[in-house]
Structure formats: C-alpha cells, structure tokens
Amino acid sequence: MSAVSIYYLSMTSPNQLVEKVEAKGLSVIEAEIDEYRLNKYLYQLVGEQWQWQDKQHQSDDAWKAYVESPALKTWVAYYRGTIAGYFELKSDGEGCTEIAYFGLAPAFIGRGYGGYLLSQAIKQAWAIEGTTRIEVNTCSLDHEAALKNYIARGFQLVREEVSGS
C-alpha cells in the first residue's frame, strides 16, 4: 500500500474567504428534505473515483441516521438539470462546522466549477448559527487540484499526516 498524505485545513473568519463568484451555469440548492438514498448516491457518484471508502459498506440504517442528524446539511449543484456535485456540512454544536464531503461528479471535473462550489460551501458554513471555525480535510488520493482549491479559497493548512507505507 502506498503512503497517503492527509491534509487538515481550517478557516477561522468569514473574511478569509477568497470567493470565486463565477457560477458558469451552476445552481446550488439545499436538499431540505432528508433522504439518505440521495446522500448515498452522491457519495458514490463523487467519491468512487477518489477511493472514498469510509461509508462504502454502511448499512441503510447507518446512512439514515447520518443523514437525518440535525447537525448535517446537504447541498447539491446542478448544471442544466444534471447533478454536477455536492457538499455536506456537519456542525458540532460548539462552533466548528466541517465540510464533511465535497466534490464534483466525474463529468464536471476540469470545467472550472470547483472554486465556485467550494465558495458556496464556505458561505453556507459561515451562515450556520454559531460557526466560529470551518474545517475540511483532503488527501493525496483526491483530485490533484483539491488542496490548491482549498488554499485558494482561504483555508490554512493546519497539519499533515502520512498513513500507510
């Protein structure tokens, strides 16, 4: 198994956001009704190519409990009626909101949508009452531009860990 670098990032003020405002036709809409099958589908659609595995074998009951948690909010990005990506925000109730999952569907990678979608995720995270810090992590298995996008939007690298070898 190859070593995987995990990058932990944080933002402590809304003023740190370097927003990308060009939507390029994307609509980002909150999924206001909890439907675990949607989140499960989005996780597979976006995460399969990046080897997301932490939720891959969870039961439907575990997915349901995860999605129906009042601490979790989901947004879906659409382009001309097609799912282009999504993000999930998870609040710990103590000031930290995590971008739990974030990404684009395979057909939409490389079209310049990532910066706008991440800007929307950050703005929505700051809009959650009580948020004083936003956290996100990425790893060397994710898209090569992922870490650059987080830093370009204003996140600061807090620490890096290497697992496996």
Automatic annotation (TrEMBL):
Q: Which UniProt keywords apply?
A: Transferase
Recorded GO MF terms: acyltransferase activity, transferring groups other than amino-acyl groups
Q: Which PROSITE patterns match?
A: GNAT
Q: Which InterPro entries match?
A: Acyl_CoA_acyltransferase, GNAT_dom
SUPFAM superfamilies linked to this entry: Acyl-CoA N-acyltransferases (Nat)
Q: Which Pfam families match?
A: Acetyltransf_1
Top-level division of the source organism's lineage: Bacteria
Name under which the protein is recorded: Acetyltransferase (GNAT) family protein
The species this protein was found in: Sinobacterium caligoides
Lineage of the organism = Bacteria, Pseudomonadati, Pseudomonadota, Gammaproteobacteria, Cellvibrionales
